[in-house]
From TrEMBL, chain A:
This is NADH dependent phenylglyoxylate. One of its GO terms (molecular function) is oxidoreductase activity. Residues 438-469 are annotated as: Disordered. The lineage of its organism: Bacteria, Pseudomonadati, Pseudomonadota, Alphaproteobacteria, Rhodospirillales. CDD domains: DMSOR_beta_like (cd10550), TPP_PFOR_porB_like (cd03376). The keyword Oxidoreductase applies. Residues 449-461 have a biased composition (Polar residues). Residues 42-73, 75-104, 110-134 form the 4Fe-4S ferredoxin-type domain. SUPFAM superfamilies: 4Fe-4S ferredoxins (SSF54862), Thiamin diphosphate-binding fold (THDP-binding) (SSF52518).
């Protein structure tokens, strides 16, 4: 297994040129800033020069003194002040201005990512700078056992398969998995010919009773003292928001200690792309066709995760594979919460086949769905309320998102305006809820408690070590 | 008879890059690196800093034995190649050993070019190309009181500064009008010359040496003046080390002639670095551009070709680059920074000196004194022939910021 590295990301669309990053860098490093923010092509836009910690670093290759070297442990191109003779040839190697002369000391200076905690990122008020930890995630989980068999028969570019494999790698073998009818069992995770496609106990409930069955399993494990099992569902949006909703709602209301992951591809995709309760307004599906009279779905989608917050679940969050670090952090918290009460994770999953997106553009669609506020990322707990985990400010217009997706190709300006209005309305509501957080103690008492034997306010320590592999 | 699938003759930047490029594609193929030097790899560029004491002979080595072990490359020091039999695919060393190969990289570098000056071969003089030269010069410098340096190129000026800083009385003889010819225009060079003069170095520009005699060094110039010194350094440029290729069939002009893939005219033989005569980016004509960035680029391309890497790209031509420090100050240049014919040159001469050279609203050269800029960014603007029409005012006013902006945009 190779080694991957974390990196500082710059999103030009969010940068307002405040320069706080440069001040922070300069202060942290005691000299000139190693990140430079410069005016962009249009007024009010900005660009950056910072070391990319290249995999094929020209600065290192042209250094005549051996003062620069890429550390294969953390990926940082380090500079050895005692070997450097200040010849500046490295500045001729770098095409990005990532290593430049610090005129205060007349020597070169470059970013070293502050030992994995970059000062510039911490002070960025707009989120333009991000420290992207996908490398750490890969290093930590890349070598762990994949709990699905190879060769699941998902479509090319299937995002749901990605979600399944990531989630189960993280959760590990100590789990019992329910996969109600949908793409997830359909692609082979429940298996064929008496063998499962999953390396943990897996079962195939009805669309209607997933959460109820999980409640029973959880209670049995509690009774026999096995408090280390994650009892969970990987369910589609149809099985969660429509046919199975009464069971989900009931289990959440009772505070059942279950991890319920809804993989939302906005319809019944494996049976031929029929509309569901979470299919967005205007979408083409096989039951909301586009023709002379009909122009796709005429109703708005229900916001299922928001509905789950009304159940006062232990944990509710939205996530996207476009923001893997966020997804992994939420998986952590969702697993933790599932030992104390109902834990609901809603992961958006663009479907290349049903939505008409090229397989190679699925992750871009994921990112744009978040960056346009179509799918805002947030999390909720019953004690701290709701908070955004990705800033909803400076969002792209919704047109940037829908133009990537075939199922919206027919949209009229009126329909687009409607979608934009609904997106804005949804963000306004979430902001209102987020503004209330953290809530005053009295207003948000812990729920009355779970009816399962161990109780919601269990004194059992939450299990930390989940994966054995 | 020792053999290697990949035989690299030379051990500096070009050969090291070839090694890296080969190992990315072929982790196992047998490889050997032969060098006439007795040390592990080092860069000739570092030598002035060894003379000054800023660096030391042990600090300058670019790779250690563990690196060669990890890369399965046999490192053979004290191995001077004396002949090549291209038909038999064999290289003979001075000690009689014969190395067979499948693919050969000629990266034997350059050596000091000694001018045909009367009497020069009868006196003791220094050159500065190897670590041994640097150690010798440093030792001689301690006992000397005065020095004459022939040549005001980079090596000559670096050494002259070192000698002057060590307290010697130094004269530099250069036949051109200015120091560092080619890299800088007259105005930039004048600033550098003034600094040398201010530090007590006597610059004899537009002067030729007609005769040198002993005992230490008595240098007679073409104007009749005579310079007496305890120490003589000859730094009048370098020439590719190609004598060992005589009779091999490998085509040699000023250097080893290579195509855009760094192949020579002989099957299975590549060349890269100071020894190779590749093309000049600006003119597209054959040129010797003996600097590290071109050695690195050529070595990589040669290595990729030797290992059959399908991602190999043709050599786009070399760009002259110079990052020069003198007496704590900085002078930088890239591309046709001294060009005057058919170009638009925008100069700033108050405080720091800056010279931007454009052709058809595209950057072709950039030089500065006392004002650092991102040489690599300007190099990319030149190489990619970025049209600056849209942002020309901003570029001329704030070249560094605008350059960073342009590359940041390109990167996305």
């Amino acid at each position: 297994m190779g080694v991957a590295f974390d990196s500082i990301g710059f999103k030009a669309s969010l940068c307002d040129g405040c320069g706080d990053c440069m001040t922070a860098c300069s202060k942290a490093k005691g000299g000139a800033s190693r990140i430079s923010i410069v005016p962009g092509a249009k007024a009010g836009t900005f660009e950056t020069a910072i070391c990319r910690q290249c995999g094929d670093p020209k600065c290192v290759q042209v250094c005549p003194s051996g003062a620069l070297d890429k550390d294969n442990g953390n990926g940082i191109i380090g500079w050895d002040a005692s070997k450097c003779v200040d010849c500046l040839l490295c500045t001729a190697g770098c095409a990005y201005g990532g290593i430049a002369v610090d005129e205060t000391v007349a020597r070169v200076a470059k970013c070293d990512q502050c030992d994995g905690d970059p000062a510039c990122v911490k002070v960025c008020p707009t989120g333009a700078l991000e420290f992207r930890k996908a490398g750490t995630i890969f290093n930590e989980y890349g070598g762990k056992e994949d709990l699905f068999v190879p060769g699941l028969s998902g479509c090319q570019g299937c995002n749901s398969e990605l979600i399944m494999r990531h989630a189960m790698r993280k959760i590990g073998r100590n789990s019992v998995l329910a996969t109600p009818p949908g793409c997830i069992p359909g692609m082979g995770s429940v298996g064929y010919n008496g063998k499962t496609g999953t390396k943990v106990p897996v079962f195939h409930p009805l669309l209607t009773n997933t959460a109820s069955m999980l409640s029973g399993i959880r209670r049995y494990y509690d009774r026999i003292g096995r408090k280390d099992i994650v009892v969970m569902a990987l369910a589609g949006d149809g099985g969660t928001s429509d046919c199975g909703f009464h069971a989900v709602s009931g289990a959440a209301e009772r505070g059942e200690k279950v991890l319920y992951v809804c993989v939302d591809n906005e319809g019944y995709m494996n049976t031929g792309m029929q509309r569901s309760g979470t299919t967005p307004y205007g979408s083409w599906t096989s039951t909301t066709p586009v023709g002379e009279h009909m122009k796709g779905k005429t109703q708005d989608a229900k916001n299922l995760p928001l509905i789950m917050t009304a159940h006062k679940c232990r944990y509710v969050a939205t996530a996207s594979t476009g923001y893997m670090e966020d997804l992994y952090e939420k998986l952590d918290r969702a697993i933790e919460a599932s030992f104390e009460g109902f834990s609901y994770l809603h992961i958006y999953s663009p479907c290349p086949t049903g939505w008409r997106i090229p397989a190679s553009k699925v992750i871009e669609a994921c990112r744009m769905s978040v960056d346009s506020n179509f799918n805002p990322l947030w999390e909720y707990t019953n004690t701290r309320g709701l908070r955004f985990t990705h800033s909803p400010d400076n969002a792209y217009p919704i047109t940037e998102y829908v133009k990537m997706i075939g199922k919206y190709r027919h949209l009229s300006p009126d329909q687009l305006a409607h979608i934009q209005a609904k997106v804005d309305e949804q963000v306004a509501l979430l902001k209102l809820m987020a503004a209330e957080s953290p809530p005053p103690q009295a207003a948000h008492r812990a729920p009355a408690g779970s009816s399962t034997p161990a109780g919601a306010e269990s004194s059992q320590p939450a299990r930390r070590e989940i994966a054995r592999n | 008879m020792p053999e290697a699938k990949y035989l690299l003759v030379g051990s500096s930047h070009a050969a090291l890059e070839a090694l890296r490029a080969i190992r990315l594609v072929d982790p196992d193929g047998s490889m050997a690196m032969l060098t006439k030097d007795e040390r592990l790899p080092y860069s000739p560029t570092i030598l002035p800093y060894v003379v000054s004491g800023r660096s030391g002979p042990d600090k300058v080595l670019l790779r250690d034995p563990a690196f060669f072990a990890a890369n399965a490359c046999t490192y053979v020091p004290n191995a001077q190649a004396v002949s090549l039999d291209a038909k038999a695919r064999a290289v003979t060393l001075a000690n009689g050993e014969v190395w067979r190969y499948q693919s050969l990289l000629v990266a034997s570098g350059a050596q000091p070019a000694i001018p045909p000056v009367k009497g020069l071969d009868g006196v003791t003089y220094h050159v500065l190309r190897t670590l041994a030269d640097a150690e010798g010069l440093r030792a001689a410098m301690g006992a000397a009181k005065s020095a004459v340096v022939l040549g005001a190129g980079l090596v000559g000026l670096h050494a002259a500064e070192n000698l002057a800083e060590a307290g010697l009385k130094v004269s530099v003889v250069e036949m051109q009008d200015h120091v560092l010819p080619g890299y800088f225009d007259a105005k930039a060079s004048t600033r550098i010359e003034e600094a040398f003069t201010k530090h007590g170095v006597d610059l004899k520009l537009r002067r030729k040496v007609v005769e040198v005699s002993g005992p230490a060094a008595r240098v007679t110039l073409d104007d009749g003046n005579v310079l007496e010194a305890d120490l003589l350094l000859v730094a009048t440029g370098v020439r590719p080390v190609t004598d060992w290729l005589e009779g091999s069939g490998v085509a040699v002009d000023k250097g080893v002639v290579v195509d855009e893939a760094m192949r020579t005219n002989i099957d299975g033989v590549w060349a890269a670095g100071d020894v190779a005569q590749a093309t000049d980016f600006a003119s597209g004509k054959p040129a010797l551009i003996g600097i590290i960035p071109t050695a690195v680029e050529q070595g990589k391309i040669a290595g990729q070709g030797m290992a059959g890497d399908s991602y190999r790209k043709d050599y786009a031509g070399g760009l002259p680059v110079n990052t020069y420090r003198f007496f704590g100050r900085v002078a930088l240049s890239i591309g046709r920074a001294a060009a005057t014919e058919g170009v638009e040159a925008v100069e700033t001469d108050s405080g720091a000196y800056r010279r931007l050279v454009l052709e058809g609203n595209r950057l072709v050269g950039y030089a500065s004194v006392d004002e650092p800029f991102d040489v690599g960014i300007m190099g990319e603007l030149i190489r990619r022939r970025i049209d600056l029409t849209e942002c020309k005012d901003a570029f001329l006013a704030w070249p560094v910021e605008t350059g960073r902006r342009l590359m940041s945009e390109q990167w996305r």
